[in-house]
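It is worth pausing here to work through a concrete case rather than discussing structure prediction in the abstract. The textbook approach is simple: state the sequence, then state the predicted structure, then interpret. We follow exactly that order.
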Amino acid sequence: MSHHHPNFPPSLSISPNTTADDGDEFGISAQRDAIEKFGIAGRVWEAALAMCSYVNSMSVDARDLEFDPPFLEGRGWDGHPTLIELGSGTGIVAAQIARMFLGDGIIIATDLPDVCPLLERNLHAHTAPPDSRKSGCDNVFVRPLAWGNIKHAALIEREFGLRRDANFMGDAPSSNTLTHVICSDLVYFPELFAPLLRTLIHLTSFPCMAAMNNVYPKIVISYKIRSLQKEAPFWAAFGLWFTFHPVLYRRRRSTRLLPHSVVADDHSLNGDVKTEPWMPFGDTDPDTPDRTFVFFAYRRPESLSWDIPQSDQDLIDGVGARGTSFRKADDTFETLLFMIMEHTE
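Step two, the predicted structure:
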């Protein structure tokens, strides 16, 4: 079996995303140069832009959109978020998060070691002058984390005090609680499904999860469908370990400037704000052939006692899930997909 670098698949032929206009670091010219050097990690992918829109909902300028749940909503944490982004690529999502809220929290943007220089460069440009260890400001960091690499994860856990056992807490300058794991457009190559799932399970397991405080990391995944047949096995395995649902949104329109004659709702008075029905967030155009979605997920509490198989194929096939060695699959994704498609028709 031949192996290739995950960012340079055979016959790689991609062009910059022309809808990304978020400054020079993420523009067309910058993407073209980054693609040549970093492969698929150098492109701003469509689902990353969907994630940026979700993050941007925290902005005062975005109050015409309401999201359920809000991006920073979580279970049991004290308002000081600690986020890890997997497969950060260009860093456009981490940069957006940093701009929106990070006064008290921490963002750890991660990718393969050879992509970290791209992350460092782009995040530097969006923050204050950096020191040698930070990405440009006091609460945004870049660290290597290859999916499935427990050593990489352990180094991050030790440095930022994410673990809750005495053996690791001694070296950390302070203790942090992991509140969010961000994933933008990461479900694409089948050979990476198991390593990605293994990392998600690891980051939401003891001792990273502060179960004694009922703090459960919220996973936010933006996903663009490219090949359902190839990608469905990831969701079938993911759903065994995590509950997940689509992020919903609705628009709020002011009728202040409209004459009474054009206000359709009898209960709306001139100057009111009308809200549209809740819709799954992702594509603004329901006729887009390759749909994009944003899901939020939490670890199934009962899964914390399950044995995690060493074999990647067994993990994807559901071995160990539900506490049994039988192969199995979850149908949440298929059910959600049918419901979402019906809702947008």
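Step three, interpretation. Confidence is low (pLDDT under 50) at residues 129-136, 257-270. The radius of gyration is 21 Å.
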